Amino acid sequence: MRINKLTKWTAVLTLALPVLLMAQRGDEEGEADKSGSVAFKFLNLQYDARGAALGGLAAQAAGAEGLYWNPAGLAKAGGLGFNAGMTQWLVETSYMNAGVVMPMAGGVLGVGFVSVDYGDFMKSGWEEVSGSYVFSPNMETFTASDNALQVSYGRFLSDKFSIGGSAKMISESIEDESLSGIAFDVGTQFNTGYKNLQLGAVISNFGPSVDPVETEDESGLAPPMTFSFGAVGQAFGDDSMGLMAGINVVKLSDMAQRIALNGEMTVAGMIKIRGSYTLGDLVQDALSFGAGINMAGISVNVAMTQMVAFDPVMRFSLGYQL
User: Fold this and answer.
1) What is the pLDDT of residue 189?
2) Domains and CATH numbers, the chain
3) Full DSSP string of 105-162
4) N or C: which end of the chain has fewer CB within 10 A?
5) CA distance 78 to 68
6) pTM, 2 dp
């Protein structure tokens, strides 16, 4: 009994910590836009169609999808799991992700990577022609890309409470210049046992600062540390036919707090219809929705996010869980 009580209190305190930290950061720093103040911003992209449609999966990430939302969710994988996705992002930018998880060492071990391709850019500059300098808008092309490789581990501390962590090697490159660093995630999940109410909290992308390629700022730039908290429960029905509704709160170190209200409807135990609406200052992607199908351990998901100033963003993902 003492162990059970200790586990419950540990779960509550661990889940509450990111919320308290978010509030403290909001009081100290205000809600001002601090765009451009962090490195490796691509880590804040949403890499999974289901999670993007719901505005986050801090509470309900399970199996391989936990690699990108909450490493504590890896503990829910009953066997070998796989997840991969592709997104057509803004202005000819695309990115992809893939990860695999398997039970090991008393928990679940996972490996994943993400890759962002920004396409070709046209270089412009000044050229010397007949003794004078002439501006040339189309000199040659160059490319830019971002990459991250991560190792994650999650396990249950009790039948309802799980923890997890990730370590990431991250890099950015543009033409002949590159930047690299490391970042970490720590997450928890707790199933209350009441109406399938699940809670989750994550502190992600924290790590040492790096020096930009060209800078006079000795302090450098840190990865985009993020605090996330989610709660989701059974609004009506059950896992075969019913609605799961919840909330996901995200505080980015360089942007104002975001709050996503979400819902996921299950039909006939296989078909999923989901959507979310995000509230916050300067939100450019408020409305997201999608659908998926789960059959024989295979899941296929698609999501579309409406953008204020750009074309809609489409995401596709494929998963498998034994």
Assistant:
1) 96
2) 2-124+134-321 (2.40.160.60)
3) TTEEEEEEEEEEEEEEEEEEEEEEETTEEEEEEEEEEEEEEEEEEEEEEEEESSSSEE
4) N
5) 18
6) 0.86
